[in-house]
# Entry
Amino acid sequence: MSDKPLKQTPLFSLYQSYGAKKIIDYGGWALPVHFSSIIDEHHAVRQKAGLFDVSHMGEICIEGKAAEKLVNLLMTNDITSLEINQARYTAMCYQDGGTVDDLLVYKLADQKFLLVVNAANIDKDLDWIHSHRMNDVTITNLSEQIAQLAIQGPEAVNILQKLTDTNLTEIKPFRFVQNVQLADITNVLVSRTGYTGEDGFELYAPHQQAQVLWRELLRADDRLQPCGLGARDTLRFEAKLALYGQELSSSITPFEAGIGFTVKIDKSSDFIGKAALTQEKQNQPARKLVGLEIIDKGIPRHGYKVFSSSDQEIGFITSGTHSPTIQKHLGLALVQAEYAKLGTEVQVQIRSRLVNAVVVETPFYKRK
# Structure
């Protein structure tokens, strides 16, 4: 284990006063698992609204005359069709099609983009971007200057609206508004995006304003409650939103992970990994991410092996939990493609025993 001290978000000193419990090492960051309980926070987001500190996420700005050309080379998705104040989910891939990271690209202005990357991948992503840098492009790591809060849930828009004159209903999904004033805080980027399967917003503000923004949001409406990593994971899991290091990795391609929609093989310019991903799409992925419902007792966890009904090892669990919304033991598994059909019976090795499971439809949860 590393002896390096854990990084702290600008909200760290507030955690205890809001009842944070079980601070853990999450990708080198000290973050709370929950404030009340994982189950309580999960249901709060599904039914009302929850507030997450996601300031550990990384923000990288790419700007200059060749910024769009560089970003489009790095990303599997088509960046050239982005409008200003529009965001797009995409992947960055290696030449062999394995995934460097999955991320959001925000178009701030002509030839100016903000990349929001996974916390544990900030340094790796920066190295990867710099290794392909072009003339007339500036690459800036803003991760220590920008705080990110997420307000998620069916009441998120009504609660956030109390703090601003900006009409939030006009912000469509994967669109954003820059320089919004929230309470007395100016220069906030408000984006209609999130990682829970619910409606909501991600708020990007200067580090020094993060604590004020957190307090103002929780003071605005008692339906909003602080949430930790535990609920964030169960919520994104039910919605089948990929987590890097589990559903995605350097050895798992976007097609295998079920985010093939981010790979635009036919976009006008070349991108890193195009040849390998084109071949994979033509031949069909050898592995597919599927949903599993555990028939017997036991919760599937990351890394558990999956077997066919004839005891042949066919894959592994990427994520699993007892679903608070569905009230079943569920898992996501990367399996050989021939076992991906709905209704296929498989077995999951949970500790020393094989437990019966069946391939079911995903996402497990989809909001109405």
Observations:
- The chain has a mean pLDDT of 97.
- The helical segments are 38-47, 67-74, 122-130, 156-161, 210-220, 229-238, 274-283.
- The chain has seven helices and 19 strands.
- The domain at 58-140 is CATH 3.30.70.1400 (Alpha-Beta Plaits).
